Amino acid sequence: MSKRKNRNMRAKKQNVRKCYCEGKCPNDMINGTCEIKQGGQCFTAVEEVWDPESRSVEYEYTYGCLPDDERGFMQCKGHLVPHQRGKSIECCDGYDQCNKDLKPHIEERTTTQAPSILDQGDSVPYIVFLASVTVCITVFLLVIACVYLRYRKKEDQRKRQYYIKRYPERYPNVEILPNGTLANFIEQSSGSGSGLPLLVQRTIAKQIQMVHSIGKGRYGEVWLARWRGERVAVKVFFTTEEQSWFRETEIYQTVLMRHDNILGFIAADIKGTGSWTQMLLITDYHEHGSLYDYLQNHVLDPSSLLVMALSMASGLSHLHTEIFGTRGKPAIAHRDVKSKNILVKRNGECAIADFGLSVKYLSDTNEIDVPPNERSGTKRYMSPEMLDKSININSFEAHKMADMYSLALVFWEMARRCVTGDKITTADDYALPYYDCVGSDPSFEDMLQVVCVKKIRPQIPLRWESEDVLQTLAKIMQECWHSNPAVRLTALRVKKTLSKLNTDTTIKIV
């Protein structure tokens, strides 16, 4: 009985093989062995795995037992049925743990490329996360765009309402203008004293056809445009200069503002959609351009110089003067008088323009709306009291006297370009005031040193003494650019002096 039992045990052992297994083996054995009965196989499998960190393909090996009843699922024939990812398996049963020495080979595919991230099962959450983030960002940007467009639309409406409220419409709703010229429309509406009706202005602004740019300034770009065949100038303000547009439009809309020597105002309007806003100011067009440009290419004679100087004094006198009455005009200080802000008309006279820094004053209420910055205007033309900050910005007279200082410098620019005697003596080359003291773009400190500390003023040439006009202008300049504002002449006084000189000159010629 004992021998039979031993033979049965040996036969039983011969029918059992131990295989190497890795990971979780049968009977909860860890990295140990598993057993197969006759007909079973030990196996080693290899599979291509994409590593997203190293962005390369790695090979993953697995070991274990393949019972006889599972051999149909895993055929031990080398390379398995082609997959998107390479797999291969080899089997053995020759001796215990024979599969530990197996190295199955993965055949190369026709195209060797890294598996797509879409093929990796563990990448699905990552893809979902990316898609979710993309959708959220897109939705967020769309919401921001909608909010911004709505804001711009409301802002545009607010500006229009402010404009309408500040300049109330007293005329019927005119959307289609009848045939006529600008001069006719302005003449018909002159009773209001403040320009064309607001709705008429808007209609004109819609019908403007831009031709080409004719210059750029501190506040915007000026274009030559046409309205019903008539040439007009359109000043397009930069979006950052909204306050300048409001101020200049307000000054031009002032009652009784229209004057021959103030740039003729036609219309103002805000164009735009929810995404952009364009602020327009439409005025008369003068082909000679600014006095600054004109003087560089033209020489004056005494009579033409007198006409220009008298027209400037007349325009500034009209600005500075308050007209009393039911529909009176407030006094206005320009605060940026210079040759670039004065236009030359075809008849030889000048027109004052650019009122973005101007202030109005009403004597009955003693109100003046002055920005907090007392240094206004162009540094080269600033009066001594502005440069050293001694000006009383709440005094309207102080601003008028600052204008007179600047006007004196403009007179000097013109007088340099005037011939003397029998025209044998040529005019001086054009130059800006203080050209021999400071650079092309002087700082406040530069001008302060020259004007206030050293008390330098532009030079008066001896040749001016040979001409009555130049001699008179020289006296006016010296009084108007005096360091003490109280000593300076008023615009009305200058106008009267030049008017008398013009009358005397005319009588002599006759």
TrEMBL record:
Protein name per its UniProtKB record: receptor protein serine/threonine kinase
Enzyme class (EC, first level): transferase
Record keywords: ATP-binding, Kinase, Magnesium, Membrane, Metal-binding, Nucleotide-binding, Receptor, Serine/threonine-protein kinase, Signal, Transferase, Transmembrane, Transmembrane helix
Binding site for ATP: K235
GO terms under biological process: cellular response to growth factor stimulus
Membrane topology: Single-pass type I membrane protein
EC number from the UniProt entry: 2.7.11.30
Requisite cofactors: Mn(2+); Mg(2+)
InterPro entries, sorted: Activin_recp (IPR000472), GS_dom (IPR003605), Kinase-like_dom_sf (IPR011009), Prot_kinase_dom (IPR000719), Protein_kinase_ATP_BS (IPR017441), Ser-Thr/Tyr_kinase_cat_dom (IPR001245), Ser/Thr_kinase_AS (IPR008271), Snake_toxin-like_sf (IPR045860)
GO MF annotations in UniProt: ATP binding; metal ion binding; transmembrane receptor protein serine/threonine kinase activity
Family matches, as Gene3D superfamilies: CD59 (2.10.60.10), Phosphorylase Kinase, domain 1 (3.30.200.20), Transferase(Phosphotransferase) domain 1 (1.10.510.10)
Occurrences of domain GS (ranges): 172-207
Cellular localization per UniProt: Membrane
Top-level taxon of origin: Eukaryota
Short name of one Pfam family: PK_Tyr_Ser-Thr
SMART domains according to UniProt: GS, S_TKc
Record-annotated Protein kinase domain positions: 208-501
GO cellular component term, pick one: plasma membrane
CDD domains on file: TFP_LU_ECD_Tkv
Sequence intervals crossing the membrane: 126-151
Family: Belongs to the protein kinase superfamily. TKL Ser/Thr protein kinase family. TGFB receptor subfamily.
